[in-house]
Amino acid sequence: MTRHDHPLDPIFHPRATAVVGVSTRPSFDGQLGGIFLNAILEQGYHERHSLYAVNPKMTEVRGVPCYPSVLDIPGPVDHVISQIPAVGLPKLVDECIAKGVRSLHSFTAGLAETGEPELVAEQNEIVAKARAAGMRLIGPNCMGLYVPGVGLSFMPRVAREPGNIFMLSQSGANASAMLYGLGRRGLRFSKGVSYGNGADLRAHDFLDYAAADPQTEYVVGYIEGVQDGRRFLEALRKLALRKPTMLLKGGITSDGARAANSHTGSLAGSIDVFEALCRQTGAWHAPRMDDLLDLATVVTSFVRRARGRNVTIVGAGGGTAVLASDQLALAGLRVPSLPVEVQAELHSFIPIAGTSVRNPVDATFGRDHPLDFTHDAELTRRAFDTIVRSPTTDIIFTTVGGSFMRDEDAATRERRIRVTIEEFAALQERSGVPIVMLHEEHRIGDAAVHAHQRGVALVPSIERAARAVAELMEWREVRAGLPEFE
């Protein structure tokens, strides 16, 4: 993996890792060790680096040597993941300092987020001791690090191959939502951090790192409370100037703010202030998790090059097309009729009966054969080439490629989807008009990775695609004077 001289870089490249408090009971997948050890083994960290477990009741777990304490491990240890209860954390910190550990991630809850004065004081004491010794803390009360290029992970069944998106989340559950939600669409991550209470390392520290990380090109994040307003503003401004940054804010209502305070000990603050901060820095505040996932999908695709707000819908039929047009208009996009000469050209090879070529374009080559590259590639390609030449087409939303026949086997479906993706990728490159495929990612399967690699956006519904593209257009206007999304 690429290394650089940011002071936090060693945290993301541990040469040896120990998981303290590994479980002696099988987890949900039937394996001993617990979620962290099993996720790291799944990532293959142990194939490249030293991996240890700590539990005085075992000497080995799933092939990993297990020791009574961190101090009993024979070799050096850079990173420690703690699963032990909060009562044991002060002793563990002392052992890690004595061992020369560089970073400690504490999954443990039950400290400052409780609001109990003595536990707040204990957390502060732990942080002060660690900082004085040169050791950094991640958490407490968090999931920690996901670094696929190294082999670290806090969740099973996430991609092993690295990408270009940095994920930051104060919440472990929302970190998983971003990793799984974007991962299913083929997006991949440079690093991921769930930082919980942020007792030592906080949001601004990781934003500053993301700005310097050459592997990171985009940033997504979930924030509950800003713990140091001035430093957060400075870090976000530096980051958003260089890299598209999309943030979801939790605790925007009084009930949500109360939940955030009990969750990570965060004072959520005013949503108006947070939105103003995003506008000032050029970052984008997404109102919902779905919006964050969809916006990240379109920003990392060819859609970021869209010339304007005019959308041509291809493949949606009848009443679906009517509702789709309404949704786009409500989102602030336009669905203009194709020029009469474009309609005439389409009708020169598409039968008039049962079709519409005004916009939306609901076209068939006969009663049983809708537009489809595997059925009639030449005519389907000709139809799309005609549409992208229209001055009213800035972007295409399409369901083509997703009409799954009942008798279609998985191999045939996979082939058809991949052929469609390749056709759309080539169309984007030769025309400059982006394509949004309106298909649920679980119906696409592994082809979603192919779609993202080829720059074709995959969004589950036309309503969500409309919001995402409208947000992208508005974000570009907000960023006037800052670098373009290229």
Provide tags for this entry.
Rossmann fold, 486 residues, seven-stranded mixed beta sheet, six-stranded mixed beta sheet
What is the residue-averaged pLDDT? 89
Distance between the termini: 23 Å
Helix content: 25-40%
**Order of strands across the biggest sheet?**
3-4-2-1-5-6-7
Which percent band covers the strand fraction? 15-25%
Tally of helical segments: 16
Topology:
Blueprint: E1 16-20, H1 35-43, E2 50-54, E3 60-61, E4 64-67, E5 79-82, H2 89-99, E6 103-106, H3 117-133, E7 136-138, E8 144-146, E9 165-169, H4 172-183, E10 189-194, H5 203-212, E11 218-223, H6 229-242, E12 245-249, H7 254-264, H8 271-281, E13 284-286, H9 289-299, E14 311-314, H10 318-331, H11 340-347, E15 356-357, E16 361-362, H12 377-388, E17 395-398, H13 410-431, E18 435-438, H14 441-444, H15 447-453, E19 457-459, H16 462-478
Parallel strand pairs: 1-2, 1-5, 2-4, 5-6, 6-7, 9-10, 9-11, 11-12, 12-13, 14-17, 17-18, 18-19
Antiparallel strand pairs: 3-4, 8-10, 15-16
Helix pairs in contact: 2-3, 4-9, 5-6, 6-8, 9-16, 10-16
Structure in words:
With 486 residues, the chain is α/β, with parallel strands linked by helices. The protein folds into three domains: 129 residues, Rossmann fold, CATH 3.40.50; 139 residues, 3-Layer(aba) Sandwich (Rossmann fold); 173 residues, Succinyl-CoA synthetase domains (Rossmann fold, 3-Layer(aba) Sandwich), CATH 3.40.50. The protein has 16 helices and 19 strands. The strands form four sheets. A seven-stranded mixed β-sheet has the order 3-4-2-1-5-6-7, with helices on one face. It has a six-stranded mixed β-sheet with strand order 8-10-9-11-12-13, sandwiched between helices. The longest helix has 22 residues.
